[in-house]
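To whoever picks this up:

The parser on our side crashed when reading a file containing two proteins. I've narrowed it down to the boundary between the first structure block and the second sequence. Both blocks are reproduced below exactly, byte for byte. First block:
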Amino acid sequence: MAVRKEESQEVPISSLIDVVFLLIMFFVVTSNIEKEAFDVQIDLVKAQNMKPAVKVPPKRITINVQKDPGDPELGLFFVESAMVTPEQMRTELIGFRKAVGSDGVVMIRADKELLFRHESEVIEAIKASGLANIRIQAELEARD
């Protein structure tokens, strides 16, 4: 009778390490893209008696209005974390509408002291683009 040699069965670890590394890189890159539009530090308007948003709209563009450090009365505009002028904002919104259609959502994140000072510039740019679905992001106040 022939005696069988016992062979050790091993899982090739090197290929598994490559796959895990690629998955980690994929999730790191995609998570940063989602967070980019909200990186600007803004003191949001406080909201009372509102329900928190459950879903974030998939077809959206974010406009941030931040205080200018040099002159607090002036506002700086950011579209998806890129600083723009009101004219560039209008162009970005028109391009967004062409890309996703008229059902795209414009999310406005404005500093609480600047929201109504620069609202007309943002609304005019949105109006010129033909978009109609606007959301203003606010911070929910804790209920007592």
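<<boundary where parser fails>>
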Amino acid sequence: MLLRGVSWNALLVGTLVYAAVFIVIRQFMTLQTDPDSVMRLGLLLFALPGAVTALMSRENPLTLALLGALLATPVCLAITHMPFFSAQGFWQEMAWLSSAMFWCVMGALTTMLWRELLWLHRQRQLR
């Protein structure tokens, strides 16, 4: 089963961090004169929720990072339609959020890679 051994705390924290990063980036975009450059650089911040989720869960870090992003995406779409956010077209928002999901999973992958590299380094030192 896909959700067997899932750390629900990691899923909740990953979802909340994803939504928080989204709100911070979108709020910062409304304050800038050139929101396109902020939007492109801001996508890299979405690696943070994936990394946090991967650090909290050793069993299914990729699944939890993707599931957390998928759970937070409808909330983020609802937030974009509030009056204090500059709303763009629906399909442009979906494209941006799918890029954000990609970077979230890349954050989890990077954390998994560093975890394995550190484990290999420790194994070599013990020999």
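After patching the parser it read the second block fine. The mean pLDDT is 85. Residues 8-126 form one domain.
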